[in-house]
Amino acid sequence: MRKTNPILLLLLFLVECMLSACTSAASRFDQITEVPVATLTALAVTDAAPVPADATAGPADEASTPAAPVPSETAPAPTETALAPTGGAPAPTESAPAATTLTLWHTWTDAQLQALQPELEAFAADHPEVAINLLPASNNPQPLADTFDTNAAPDLLAGSTGELSDLTGTTDIGLLNPTTVDLETLADAAAAKGAATYDQSWAVPFSKSGLALVYNKAILPSEYLPSNPDDLNDLLQKALAYKRAFLSQYPLCIAANDAYHLAPIYFGFGLPAYVDEAGQGYLDTPEALAAGQWLADISPVVYPGQSDELCQSAFLESTVAMWWTGPESLPAIQAAGIDYGILPMGRPYVEVQAFMLTPQAAERGNAALAVELIQRLTSPEAQKALALAGAIIPVEPTVLADPEVAQSPNVAGYVAALARGLPLPTYPYADAQWDIVANASEMMWHRVQTPEEALTAAQAALVAEVAKIAGNITEAEVAP
Q: How far apart are CA 424 and CA 428, in angstroms?
């Protein structure tokens, strides 16, 4: 027969003392030789004995203490709060309120986040009750518009204002709150324009980007370098001559035949827009036709791999002498040890990076805190830190004039290139241009259609698409 653990026997003795007279339990203690398994199981799942009603008082009179009422439905398991002494301070019935959380979707690199760290830490010091939840936009599995049904929308966005036509366009509820910030005091003209739609400000800009010709000084002799940013035909002739002189290399790489990457060419030939705020298209104009012919003429000598990744690889391997690209490409070029220059050419789109406020920030009571965070992260100190960290071009005039920033060849080169540019459109009609311009440009690039054929068809398609968009635009969107 199995011997019983003495400690267990002692526990049983104490239980028996509570259930009956201790002397009676003591008389039976020596007779216990085995505890059934069912009894051990029951002891294991039984709650601890209740705490006396007043731990500081003497023994209570059991007859005068009413039993707690038993609810008609199954009662929850007892908790320490429910069993807390009533003679002292009452136990809390709920936990302390959680810290306020500001959720920010962003597109920053690790280096840019590091540059912003002092401003984030200063905000945290002023508001220790606020947690900032920084989420890379690429990690968000659903579009912004889909997050409102589940209350998963962020309070803030930090990203391209090229999305404004979607975020403020064709829906009855705006996905952004307009701002009352005087952008002209915070940003240069292109950045201020890029943060507005129909003269209503929807964002607070902190940087800008766009395309310039980045060239490899080691493989591009100066005689092949274009000297006039307005003379695209000079670039064409020098590119053709370079290919004849260096058969194993290419003079130029263009990442895509789309409206963004070809903007320096179309606008460089004088096109005012693909389609303007009023819905007027310009794809069959003489300026567009001249740009289309230029594309057809240069395509045989342009590097055949058309993507950012392929252009970068070819440039880093010294297969391509010039690359139409943005400041975000510079860290990789610098890491490769390439001696490079930055040349303005044509008229690029100016893409503005800005902070945007969602209506959910106001609904959660976070709007004032969110605006204060925006002010910190768009301050001259923050923009200067981002500029010196590389791969960002500030928009605040005093930062652009700062000697330490101005002497950066990266900043100086892109400031000169983007000063010539057009703001990336934020009005709803711009949604019509992207696929249409890309398809027509592909036809001309591969010489499947002449410029007249491709662009006449593109203009007709643009007019039809603008009419569809016009039917969805509310009066409030056009005149907020």
A: 12
Q: In Å, how far are 173, 185, 310, 425 from 469, measured between CA atoms?
A: 17, 33, 35, 15
Cα–chain center distance at 375: 18
* Nearest one of 241, 250, 169 to 476, comparing CA atoms: 169
Residue-wise DSSP of 189-230 = HHHHHHTEETTEE--EEEEEE--EEEEETTTS-GGGS---TT
Closest among 202, 201, 200, 224 to 213, alpha carbons compared:
224
Domain match, 368 and 395 both: yes
Q: Measure Cα distances from 169 to 116, 153, 425 in Å.
A: 31, 18, 12
Confidence (pTM): 0.71
Give the per-residue pLDDT at 110: 87
Give the strand pairing for 422-423 and 349-357.
parallel
| CA pair distance 412, 68, nearest whole angstrom | 79
User: 413-452: per-residue pLDDT in tens?
Assistant: 999 999 999 988 888 899 999 999 999 999 999 999 999 9
If DSSP codes are grouped into helix, strand and coil, which group holds residue 22? helix
Q: How confident is the model at residue 367 (pLDDT cuts 50, 70, 90)?
A: confident
Decide if pLDDT at 7 tops 50. Answer: no
By three-state DSSP, how is residue 214 classified?
A: strand
What are the residues facing 209 on neighbouring strands? 351
- For 390-400, write each residue's pLDDT tens digit: 768 998 888 98
- Does 198 lie in the same domain as 271? no
Question: Which residues form the domain of 136?
Answer: 101-205+352-423
- Sign of the torsion angle spanned by Cα atoms 135, 138, 144, 149: negative
Spatial neighbors of 145 by CB under 8 A, at least 6 apart, are 166, 171, 175
What is the identity of the amino acid at 154?
A: P
Which of 127-136, 145-154, 191-200 is least confident?
A: 191-200
CATH number of domain containing 256: 3.40.190.10
Q: Based on the fold, state whether residues 327 and 448 are members of the same structural domain.
A: yes
Q: Given phi > 0 = left and psi -120 to 50 = alpha, else beta, which region is 172? A: alpha
Whether residue 155 contacts residue 103, with contact meaning beta carbons closer than 8 Å, is answered with yes
Under 8 Å between Cβ of 200 and 178:
yes
263 and 216 in a common domain: yes
In a domain, 36, yes or no: no
Asked whether the predicted pLDDT for residue 258 surpasses 50, the reply is yes
Asked whether residue 260 falls in the same domain as residue 362, the answer is no
d(CA 282, CA 455) in angstroms, rounded, equals 9
Which of the listed residues 423, 438, 465 is the one where a domain comes to its end?
423
